[in-house]
Amino acid sequence: MGVEEIKKRAVVAVVRGATLETIIPMAEALKKGGVTTLEITMETPKALAIIEKLSSVFGDDILVGAGTVLDAETARAAIMAGSKFIFSPTLNKDTIQMTKRYGVISVPGAFTPTEILTAYEHGADVIKVFPAGSVGPDYFKNIAGPLPYVPLIPTGGINLQNAKDYIRAGAVAVGVGSSLVDPKRQLTDQYLLKVTQNAKGLMEEVLFARKGLVHM
Predict the structure, then answer these.
(1) Three-state secondary structure call for residue 166
(2) Which residues, 6 or more positions from 55, have their beta carbon under 8 angstroms from its beta carbon?
(3) Catalytic center residues
(4) In this model, does residue 213 exceed pLDDT 80?
(5) Can you give the residue ranges of every domain in the chain?
(6) What pTM, to 2 d.p., does this model score?
């Protein structure tokens, strides 16, 4: 697995603050809407247990990974729990090497052209540009000029309204947080239905953007 798997699934749901009780209903709601990649951030209490539970319940139907991974030791623990990818907000070469040692998708965070190229040269599959909302879609077009072969995924400030603009600018996928699913909300049937609708709308926008079309 690598960039093609991330690109195929198109949207990464960034889940902060989930619990062992709430994660399965949230994942089901996202899956119904077509979003099948979930990033569990490692500052979440019992994050490893949540990753393990998701992996056990959904298998390959959902691509489960860890986010906010700051070091190689945390990456290894997340991989042992079932993570299929490792997202980091920063560039840590040891984390990339540990992730690739286990054959898992490496997505370190970078911001400047130098950081982006350095991460790619050290074996990253995809580079997470964070915080993408600070620079906007045009930044991705500009990076693609000198570095067209480096796959990028924006996170931070991405929502249902602007995700398509980043795809049109060349991003291989998008990472979307609380605008897609907010674990702090009470998970009523009504809210879970909204999550499914949000996921469905987001996937449609992204897929239309890839085809150069406008979703009406």
Answers:
(1) helix
(2) 64, 81, 82, 83
(3) 39, 128
(4) no
(5) 3-210
(6) 0.94
